[in-house]
C-alpha cells in the first residue's frame, strides 16, 4: 500500500485484453443469458408441477392433435433459418441474411398459428382448460411458450430494423425456445 504522497503502483499489464472490456462477451448477450436462466426456472417449475400433478387420480390425458408434429417441424425449420441468417450476418452478408431471418420469423408465426389451431381443435372436441387438470396444464405451458415465441418475433423484427444487430441473440433465443418446446412436447406425448 503506498504511503501518503507516493504514487500508487501501476495496474498489472496484460490482463483483461486491454480493450476496456469491449472485446469480451457483449452486454446484450449477457442480458439474454440472464433471461434464459429465468425462463429455465419458470419452465422447470412448470414441468415439475406437471409431472407431480400427472400422478394424481383425476388426471385424464388429452388427445394429442397430429398437428403438433407439423408445428414442431415448423419451429425446427424456423430455428435453422435464423441460424443461417445469423451466420450470414456475422460474415457481413446482411442482404443475404435478411431473407433467412424473415423466413425464420414467418415459420415461427406458422408455428404459433398451428398451436392456436391445435387449441381450437381440442376446445371443439370439448377439452377446455377448466374441465381437466391435464387440459389446464396443456393450455398453460403451450400458451406461455407461445407468448415467449411471440416476444422473440418482436425482438427479431427489431433486430432486422437495426440492420441485423441482435440477430445472433435472436437466433440463440429461438434455439432455446425450440429446446423448451421439444421438452414440453415430449412431456405432453408421454402423459
Automatic annotation (TrEMBL):
Quote the Gene3D superfamilies the UniProt record gives. Cytochrome c oxidase, subunit III, four-helix bundle
Q: Which GO terms describe its biological process?
A: aerobic electron transport chain
Annotated localization: Cell membrane; Membrane
Membrane-topology descriptor: Multi-pass membrane protein
Q: Name one GO cellular component term.
A: plasma membrane
Q: What protein name does the entry list?
A: Cytochrome c oxidase subunit 3
In terms of PANTHER family, this protein maps to: CYTOCHROME C OXIDASE (PTHR11403:SF10), CYTOCHROME C OXIDASE SUBUNIT III (PTHR11403)
Principal location: membrane
Keyword set for this entry? Answer: Membrane, Transmembrane, Transmembrane helix
Q: Tell me what organism the protein belongs to.
A: Thermus islandicus
| UniProt superkingdom | Bacteria
